[in-house]
């Protein structure tokens, strides 16, 4: 497979893509990405593209970081693989767990390794039910998630998430998963202030617990900011009220940090940004900046002490704590600490990014609102700004805008007629200017398309 044309043909002939309609390839060929450096990627046609999504919300330290490459190399040479089953550990597994305990929110201090966010969430489901069972409460099994929550693509993670399009594919979901409304003031909060709406959206959890009976509910799970659901940052009243309700009804609180973790919102974790005190915390993506698959679930002292009393933990993956993945994750966190990347997002590039996009949101005819925090953003596409009328999926403004952006060498993703962005956290002010200029061109051309 030496030349790009044979790649295009072979891809169509043999490769099944995630979240993709194969018929797309009847008209278009695949975009083959061959190289990355900093915030840029290059395709096989030689285009230099600004990666406004950091891959899939994950390449937090940018592409091509030698420290991570060296860490993988060294570990491969010393010990390419060993497991953490039957009372063994490897140095990088231990050192990463110790490091995670220093950067995760207070109280989280034990870590179980997995390979993806989906596996981390499967782990959460099994461990939470086990936790209640150990305490003589085996009926506490139901998980409450949210509409358009995304927690992964395994059967359990799909059931846990609130993505209707995913629920519709492949037949029955697992039982004992329920969903409540999104805390999205712009679309659901008519007549209420954001603060009033935050309380209303949290009350949906209380109503659901009362409907199901607290004795049947294991946990509530939410992303601090919903990512794949459209970058929905909740009003300030939402998380404190969710926290209070979980405590009142003795329900575990799980903060899915797969996107928000590792600096994305301007703090190490989204839980820090919203002052959430989770009982369990799945994380992945930014843990290794996507250089290698690794995930983890953080457990609070209290939850772990119950699990530890419960005897044999019958759960684990061959690659739980793969030593090479742990070495890369450790190098990634060390690099983030050394270069002050989280502080940079919090104090400099995050506010600059938001200011630039807010200007766009305030002035552009098809942008209804800016959402997000730090270096994760959503721009809602509307056809009537004053009346907050969102484009329909049939009108397809999001796809049109995404295409214009890519034609101008910018990757932004479209979610539910919102354009979302999550660039590498190493993005500079100049690169943010380039991002904003290109996003504006994409939006201008989309507005022109609709005569707006
Ligand atoms: N949780 C959240 C919040 C996510 O955004 C994702 C993936 O985008 C997942 C879980 C699933 O992670 P993975 O794709 O690594 O299984």
TrEMBL record:
GO molecular function list: transaminase activity
Protein name: Aspartate aminotransferase family protein
Cofactor: pyridoxal 5'-phosphate
Species this chain originates from: Kordiimonas pumila
Annotated CDD domains: OAT_like (cd00610)
Record field: transmembrane: none
Pfam families: Aminotran_3 (PF00202)
Protein keywords: Aminotransferase, Pyridoxal phosphate, Transferase
Lineage top rank: taxon: Bacteria
Family designation: Belongs to the class-III pyridoxal-phosphate-dependent aminotransferase family.
